[in-house]
Amino acid sequence: MVDRRKRVAVIGGGWAGCAAAVELVRSGAQVTLIEAARALGGRARRVDAEGMVLDNGQHILIGAYTESLRLMRLVGVNPEEAMLRLPLQMRHPAGSGGMDFIAPKLLAPFHLLFALIQSKGLAFEDKLALSRFMSAARWMGWQLHADCSVSELLERFDQTPKLNRLLWNPLCISALNTAPENASARVFLSVLRDSLGARRAASDMLVPRFDLTALFPEKAASYIEQQGGVAQCGKSVRQIAQTSAGWEVEGELYDAVVIATSPVQAASLLKAAGAEASFSFDYEPITTSYLFYEHQPRLAQPFYALLDKPETGAWGQFVFDRGWLNDAQKGLMAVVVSASGDAIAQGQDAIEKGVAKQLAEAFKFPEMVAPTWTRTISERRATFACTPDLDRPGNETGLDGLVIAGDYTKSTYPATLEAAVKSGIQAAALLR
After folding, report:
1. What is the pLDDT of residue 2?
2. From CA 336, how far away is CA 348, in angstroms rounded?
3. Alpha helices in 28-166, H assignment, sequence order
4. CA 301 from chain center: how many Å?
5. Under DSSP, is residue 310 helix (H, G, I), strand (E, B) or coil?
6. How far apart are CA 175 and CA 295, in angstroms?
7. Whose CA is closest to 322, among 313, 314, 331?
8. Percent of the chain beyond pLDDT 90?
């Protein structure tokens, strides 16, 4: 019997492409997933470095990522085993001049109230300002009618300089990868709504124990193949063409196509296909500096916030002790530098020396200034700059059977894994 299932090509094996492919397979389509790189995952993928399995950037998910967690379970990943679940927290090393804020396991919003009362490093006026902001945000429904920068929003609600320095600025930079003075307050509030403003578990922090390719994309490919589909790596698609019989992709004919590449590549493919591609973005880089210590120091917590001081070379905003996540990575620290353009301009060697010194001073452990081995990875186009009133395209292209997917498409979220996954799901829904 001839197989009459709809044939769909998904171009791009990042999280958006994998999500679209899984959803299409689940709906009965015959899917071919095509990825140019040797590993699936896009900008959240595995990197092999001198025998050490790393990620191209340290990621953290939150409990509010419901669609990402759903698809993980669908393809056979147990999120509770694959990730370390931690309560919402912003904890700086003791004696560093930072804060210690951690939410207890209470029902929302009492978990935030008790975390605020018990927090250390904040004065009474800081706690009062934070409480006022949260109350006002809830009253507003976590929405803004007129967008502005995060800095303007914080100033409007009289947030203190210390609270901005220790809490709001790091949260903004880590969530939106855009400096507060340039970041969209509307999108920032959406992130807060689905984490701080939702049930307690939604604010939990989920730190992957596995590499990012194994966390979802690899299992997604296996799921696709088990359902009769194909997942190909190392194959580039340079152009697509619409014919009377469907869509031609590298000599193969399909009924529909999902373009789940970067915005730049998507625009090129869309123009070649005769579709409008008027979107363009400014980009922000993210850098992760990995430092391995042979004597295997262990931090008291899986991760800490750091007080960055770029003028002194202290670039890091967060440090993760990978030994907490995987016994094979004891002694490995991952230091994250979001919106890292200025750091990259100083060069890799300066970044590594700067963050090593930063760790040694923050944890009062002089030996950390001299790691045994280092590897710094910078994704220069890690995310779009999430600025106010940014015009993001929808999944539709105006051509029948052709849609796009990616974390840059229209959404209330910034460029996150959840935004990518939701976009892939939406693209798949348009082709059913």
Report:
1. 39
2. 13
3. 66-74, 79-82, 110-118, 124-139, 150-156, 161-163
4. 21
5. helix
6. 33
7. 331
8. 91
